[in-house]
Amino acid sequence: MDNRSIKKLEADLWESADLLRAGSKLTSNQYCMPVLGLLFLRYAYSRFKMVEEEILKDRPVRNGRQMPVDAKDFTAKSALYLPEMAQYNWLVNLPENVASLGLINVSGQTMGSLGEVVNNAMELVEQQSEQLTGVLPKSYTDFSDDLLAELLRIFNNNALDEVGGDVIGRIYEYFLNKFAKNIASDDGVFFTPKSLVKMIVNILEPTSGVLLDPACGSGGMFVQTGDFVNEAGLQANSSMTFYGQEKVEYNAQLCLMNMAVHGLTGVIRSGDEANSFYHDAHNLEGCCNYVMANPPFNVDKVKAESAANAGRLPFGVPKENKHKEIGNANYLWISYFYAYLNETGRAGFVMASSATDSQGSDKDIREKLVKTGHVDVIISVGNNFFYTKSLPCSLWFFDKGKVDEVKDKVLFIDARNYYTVVDRTLNEWSEWQLKNMNAIVWLYRGETEKYKVLLEEYKSALKEMIAEVGEDVLNAIMDDIFTDGLETAKKHLKTLREYAKKAVETCEKKEKKRLQAVWDEKIASVEEIVEVVKEAHWLYSKFGEGQYDNILGLCKIADIETIEGKGWSLTPGAYVGVAPAEDDGVDFAERMAEIHKELLALQDESNELMGIISQNMKEMGLV
After folding, report:
1. Which one of 314, 451, 534, 592 counts the least CB within 10 Å of its CB?
2. CB 143 within 8 A of CB 29
């Protein structure tokens, strides 16, 4: 199943599930956890069947019958065993009148509704996994049997059997993302947008060791790290040890489910003992290879004495107010992230933009921090990267194991104008934009081979995309991807759109809808090619074959002396300057002629509507 088909599957499943929510009396908040629980159960069943098939291949036969599988067989393969009454296929095929079956739950009571049966399935799953004990939702009696049966049917889509567990994990993330937009009213603290998470993971490049997220929310840092490590050819659960703290227990449950859906295990603490301001719940100060987090910004009223007693403040305690409280906890978080690192550890985290230049005791802490030589990269991020707020933010990176060439240097990147628009209120970095930003960091670190591999990746990806779309004329792009290829791709796209418009206008009326869909699909494929070529051109035009250079308005390497001269500011804009305005490639006279034509058409339409309204009013005797 290709990427476009998976995206359609994600959207179709969400639309079906959300229509049911809209038709019920449940809020998104009430609906979120149970729906994610069903997706988890569907994933667990998919994994169960796959492992069961492996076990049965070499299963011994006694008296002409193959020996049945049991929980021990699955434990041996680090897989979750599902008793029959927790298997998705069994649940989805139950008759309408569940009460007539006389089913008994884990407590020995008779079950009278489908909701009770699904609750029991969750209990049975928890009995098989210590990590999931008390985590899975058990509120399915809030649903009518009809609604719950329809949800079970939706997630029994046959396509999920074809795409396998990894894609079910992706669909789980998609649903979590969609729910985050609907639910998140508390500053979106439980969900960090994927492109920010991927940027952090890509720059830290985790391979093995201890990873801590002391504000772990729904576990995005763990999931993305798992993907990164697995793609590197390692086993995430063997290479990494995951630790998390999350004060809100609801979010910690989401985290554990999210990790389980992606086949990861970890130790997550929640509740008051996991309040990072007052507790190092895992006693990991100085022990972590990696720290990643998106902490809540600008938290106030943190008890200064309690925070000081909890330690992990190598640069001192931020100044308290007259109420003996710390009025802004940003530098508590920043200090924690540094303190948790071992002698070669790396940290990456999201932080309020104001923290790069805040004054008072914050500035004193920042000075001490910069003087360690361990501040590695600071990236400014533009507006609308979060679901519930439009404020900009910054990404900070520490590295206690920097190579000598950059030991006392910091790479500043201003990415506020580099992003892809998703919709009116949301921006993100595309996969290629993430790679390009990562490439700047590679060149700063002197890792030119990785940069060259990326150039080859652009070539191979475009070759494959062009072959798939079947437009031979696009092969001309391959002659010079990084320079003239962009203009070639744009010209072809423009020609294709014009041809499509004529073809649809001149075809028979009954064929218009079908033909439009065919052309739309082809145009979308070529648009995707244009976007990839554009990103290849963006990267190569700045760094060529792999030579780092300070680019006005984008990136600059500054030493500690330069940073001191800027009053210990870590705001990228203070260093990179302002990029010259770029020609957008639009012919002014041509565009003005198009606008004038559009205005005339709108004026004609307005006059026609006014005539209709006047005639209607006359017929009604109002004029």
Report:
1. 592
2. no
Q: What is the pLDDT of residues 320-365, one digit of tens each?
A: 999 999 999 999 999 999 999 999 999 999 999 999 999 999 999 9
298: pLDDT confidence band, cut at 50, 70 and 90? very high
Angle at which helix 431-445 crosses helix 512-543, to 10 degrees, equals 10
Task: Give the largest CA-CA distance in the chain.
Answer: 96
User: For the segment 148-160, what is each residue's pLDDT rounded down to a tens digit?
Assistant: 999 999 888 777 7
CA distance readout (Å), 181 to 160, 195, 415, 426: 24, 15, 24, 10
Q: How far is CA 28 from CA 14, 33, 148, 179, 552, in A?
A: 13, 9, 15, 7, 45
Instruction: Please name the residue that has the structure tokens 């609801």.
Output: 250
Residue 555: pLDDT over 80? yes
Tens-digit pLDDT profile for residues 476-485: 888 889 989 9
Q: Which residue has the tokens 């200090």?
A: 335
Per the model's pLDDT, the better-predicted residue between 490 and 260 turns out to be 490
Tell me the whole-structure pTM to 2 decimals: 0.82
Q: With bands split at pLDDT 50, 70 and 90, how would you rate the model's confidence at 187?
A: very low
R_g of the chain computed on alpha carbons: 28
| pLDDT tens figures, 377-428 | 999 999 988 866 778 999 999 999 999 999 999 999 999 999 999 888 889 9
Q: Which amino acid, one-letter code, is at 434?
A: L
Nearest to 294 by CA among 411, 386, 202: 386
Question: What would the two tokens of residue 127 be?
Answer: 């009995």
Distance of alpha carbon 129 from alpha carbon 451, whole angstroms:
43
Instruction: Identify residue 125 by its one-letter amino acid code.
Output: V
Beta-bridge partner residues of 414: 380
**Non-local CB neighbours of 213 within 8 Å, separated by 6+ positions:** 219, 221, 222, 242, 243, 244, 245, 291, 292, 293
The owner of tokens 């070669």 is 344
**What is the three-class DSSP state of 228?**
helix
Q: Using an 8 Å Cβ cutoff, are 200 and 292 in contact?
A: yes
Contact 223, 174 (CB under 8 A): no
For residue 218, with 0-12 CB atoms within 10 Å meaning exposed, 13-18 middle and 19 or more buried, which class applies? Answer: buried
DSSP for 396-428? EEEETT--GGGTTEEEEEEETT--EEEETTEEE
Residues, the chain, total?
623
> What is the bridge-based pairing of β-strands 240-246 and 266-270?
parallel
Interatomic CA distance for residues 267 and 288, integer angstroms: 14
